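Hi everyone,

Forwarding the result from last night's run.
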Amino acid sequence: MLAGLEPAELPADAVEVGRIADAWGVQGWFKVISHSAQPEALFSSKRWYLLPTERGPKPFEGVGLMAIREAKDHSGTVVARCHDIADRDAAQALKGSRIFVARSSFPTAAADEFYWVDLIGLTVVNREGLVLGVVRDLISTGPQTVLAIDNPQGDALREILIPFVSVYVDEVDIAQRQIRVDWQLDY
């Protein structure tokens, strides 16, 4: 295992939140490509789980646990450093590693705010009780987010896109794993 990493098991609630892009500076810092425009999970968690890059040589095998010393925003990107990585070469060895954080360590979302990872897999039902399908993905279009829903149609699968805005979304019930919407199949 590389310096700065200790062997670990990936938590059951692990969510991939980013990837290490490159070393940053000469004191062991590294640059992170976040999967989110608001990388709060990277800033709030002091324990990152790494899986090695899928391409090229693998600097380590299995899952490595990294104790984060500091993570911060720098010119629109995330830079971080961990305990026990003190030089550029050690940070460079982590290039391409996938970063996972336990979902339980995410900051608490405000009222009427949701993490995308919590919405994927929820059943979408309209006001008449008709099941429209299951959320497969969310798409950021800039001004709004759109739910991408898989709707089974016989042997085929139809995609339904619903803007994730209060005009169309009546209620999100994470506990019941359901989203209630004002939407019809023929929209």
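The mean pLDDT is 91.

Cheers,
N.
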